[in-house]
Specification:
About 50% of the residues lie in helices and about 10% in strands. With about 110 residues, it is mainly α.
């Protein structure tokens, strides 16, 4: 495809195939962040935040999550309670967060592999 096309046209075709999904995902993230800033409150968090780690205690994700939770608690002035919910390759913990009340007081700390 495109053997006789000018170079600028070939680069647009290649660019479109390779970056369209990434551009779309980036746009969604930007829109989500902009929308969430409308609901942001200055007094968050007003109570302890539950951090779900979907892997077993003592592993790298757990260690990073506990260090991160301690630092976030220090910076935000509220306790971050770390809870490990293991099983199904992280799906049990992710499901627990998905079913939680969407108020920002239950967060997921995964490893980003999935």
């Amino acid at each position: 495809m495109g053997k006789n096309l000018p170079l600028w046209r070939k680069s647009l075709i290649t660019l479109g195939k390779r970056t369209a999904p990434q551009a779309f995902a980036g746009t969604l993230v930007t829109v989500a962040l902009a929308a969430s800033s409308v609901y942001a409150r200055d007094d968050y968090p007003t109570r302890p935040v539950q951090m779900i780690i979907p892997f077993s205690a003592g592993g790298p994700t757990d260690i990073v999550g506990r260090v991160m939770g301690a630092k976030m608690g220090e910076l935000l002035g509220q306790q971050f309670v770390v809870e490990n919910k293991t099983g199904a390759g992280g799906n049990i913990g992710a499901e627990a967060v998905a079913r939680a009340t969407p108020d920002g007081y239950t967060i997921l700390n995964g490893n980003g592999v999935h």
